[in-house]
Amino acid sequence: MWRRYMAAYQDMIRHTSAGSPWHVVPADHKWFARLVIGSAIINALDALNLRFPRADRTSLQEFKKVREALEQEGKVGGKKTVKKVGPKRPASNNRHPFSFVSGKAPTALCHGNRAATRP
């Protein structure tokens, strides 16, 4: 029975790895599993041999014109103006979002839509 199982397992791996290879990742320790996965991703990206695209002369001239236009956009009368966006925070709200009043760490921390629970 074991031999048939292993044959079927190897057959499945062989037929499904044509487009993308399989990587065996031991999951005994999370840190090691993440190291193996990260290494596989880095190796796959390196194998792609990616390069920045080259721009021709006309494109470079167009980029220069656009850059100059964008730099002039923020200037009024020779001085740069900066638009402040969003509401200004009150001075009393400059503390870390997880500051503890009682001195004891809570069992759950919430910030915005995210929540993290302590083990």
Walkthrough of the structure:
Strands 1-2 form a two-stranded antiparallel sheet. It has a two-stranded antiparallel sheet with strand order 3-4. It starts with a helix and ends with a strand. The protein is mainly α and 119 residues long. It contains three helices and four strands. The C terminus is likely disordered.
Low-confidence stretches: 96-119
Question: By helix and strand content, what is the structural category?
Answer: mainly alpha
Distance between the termini: 43 Å
Helix content: 40-55%
Sheet bearing the most strands, described?
A: 2 strands, antiparallel
Query: Which word captures the global form?
Result: elongated
Order of helical and strand elements: HHHEEEE
The strand order across the widest sheet is 1-2
Whole-number radius of gyration?
28 Å
The averaged pLDDT comes out at: 74
Number of helical regions? 3
Overall number of strands: 4
Strand content: 5-15%
